[in-house]
Structures are given as C-alpha cells and as structure tokens.
C-alpha cells in the first residue's frame, strides 16, 4: 500500500523563518525511509505557488497522488488560489503547517507532524470538503476570483499585520516565540495609530452602517494573528461566511476586550463587537485602509467587495 502513494511536495522554504525548510527535511527523510514515491517543487518567489498549483491542477492525477503543501498561511493561500482556478478545482490539498501563524491548521485541527500525516495517508486518502472564502475583484480584462482560507481583514488587524511585517523585531521574535506574541505586541503598538472609518455591511438584502469602525474582518474560522480566537463561533464546515465589525474603542477597552478574548470569548458580547453570518456578505468601506488576506498585505484602498462561501478538498 505504501509504495502506491505518490507525494507531490510544494514548498515555500522561506515560510516560518526556516521552519518550512526543517519540516521539508523531516518529510523527505521519512519518504525516503518509507520508500514512498515523491517529487519536489519549491516556490522561488512570492506568488509562484499559485502558478505551480494551477499547473498541477490542470493535469490529471490518480487518487493515490497527493499534493502536499509545506509552508505558512500565505503559501496555503497561493496553492488554494492556484487549484481553484485550475481545470480541476476539486483537486485535494494536503498541508503541513510550517509558518509563523498557522491559523488555518489550528482551525482545521491539522497535524504539524509529517510522520503522523504520512501514516494517515497510508490508511485514507479521502478528502474532506471544507469552507474557504471567495471574492471577486475587477481586473482590466475580466473579473478575477480570489479565495482565502483564513480571513480578509480591513483596518486594525490589517494595520497590525502591516506593522508586524515591517517590524525589525519580527525575525528575532519569530525565532524566540510563536506568531501570537508578535501579533500581541503589535496590537498594542498599533492601537493608538489606527483611525476609524465608515463601513457598510450588506447581507440577506439588509444594510447596516457603522460610522466609526476600527476593523472589519471577513473570516472563515475563529482565528486571527496566530491563534487569537476573534470569532469562536465561526467554523470551517458551517458553509457560511462570517464578518466581524469592531467599533472604535479606547486603550482601556482594548485591554478588557483582549483579556475577555483570551479568557472565555466573552468579548463577542461587547456592544462594540458585531458579527454577521451569511452565504454572502458585501463590505463597503468609506476611507482608504490597509487590508490583509490570509496575512498577505494589501496597500491602503477603498473596498467594495462581495464575499461568499466556497469550498475545497482538504486531505488530513
Ligand atoms: N522563494 C521565496 N522567496 C520569497 N518569498 C517567497 C518565496 N516563496 C514564497 N514566498 C512568499 O513568502 C510569503 C510568506 O509565506 P507564508 O505566509 O507561507 O509564511 P509565514 O508568513 O512564515 O507564515 P504565516 O502566514 O502562517 O504566518 C508568502 O507571501 C509567499 O508568497
């Protein structure tokens, strides 16, 4: 049975500041020792995994061939977009989390241990259909559909993400700790600098307007920023998409919300915390703000986006 497996590794070696490289080494040595067929492709630049995954999805594969991604949430996002835009969008994706945040793996309860995953493949290669988010952006020639495994955030969380990316401390702290710690530090550093903005949420034909939003995050699951449970009720198999709007708050209120978020999730009951669940949610912002999609930065812009729930096949 083992020898029938064929693993196609797609790896972002720079993910997780070297973590992906280590996971790749562990995985290839297990594959060699267990005499499992494999090939290996590495992304050479940001964005290349979209093209590589799309190419993989355009080819015919036997059920015992497995596309195994090693990287962080950004790498998974690229592969998801490549597969979904390919001729075979239901091509299953297997994923070993090796980034700094690994929020999707947390939400989908994925193992980070290559041995556990390979042992599992020997018993079962039936994928599970799980949710992802999708949205369309106008392009010069035609509309392009995009997908996300985690979230599309506008405002505060995107600004924190931006500050985390430029932080000189990031590299050092990544070596010392989990992404959550870096994110937490940047939450505090960014809170006084983030402005507020008008945002309209439209779902099921109903429009709700917020004058002073601090952030609006459309999410596929609970986690943000490396394990912070922003919306505990969001699930990757709910077949719904969720949007969270947090209105302007003081530094004192931030501390209270943050403690409640970590303690028992009761921050969701705060009058300044709003959440919506639907098949489709349109988010319109009135001021240029940073955005992030699966942790990848989008420069400040005005957004008018309809998000909807989509799905992909996940092997775990
Ligand atoms: N060879 C490469 N050189 C530079 N950047 C790359 C290369 N291959 C992929 N990338 C980019 O690296 C970025 C970071 O990857 P990824 O998000 O997977 O890791 P991470 O940021 O460490 O993890 P996480 O998102 O879980 O915190 C992605 O934007 C991806 O496009």
Automatic annotation (TrEMBL):
GO terms for cellular component: plasma membrane. Residues 1-139 form the DAGKc domain. It comes from the Bacteria. Its cofactor is Mg(2+). InterPro entries: ATP-NAD_kinase_N (IPR017438), Diacylglycerol/lipid_kinase (IPR005218), Diacylglycerol_kinase_cat_dom (IPR001206), Lipid_Phosphate_FormReg (IPR050187), NAD/diacylglycerol_kinase_sf (IPR016064), YegS/DAGK_C (IPR045540). PANTHER family: LIPID KINASE YEGS (PTHR12358:SF106), SPHINGOSINE KINASE (PTHR12358). Belongs to the diacylglycerol/lipid kinase family. This is Diacylglycerol kinase family protein. It comes from Lactobacillus kimbladii.
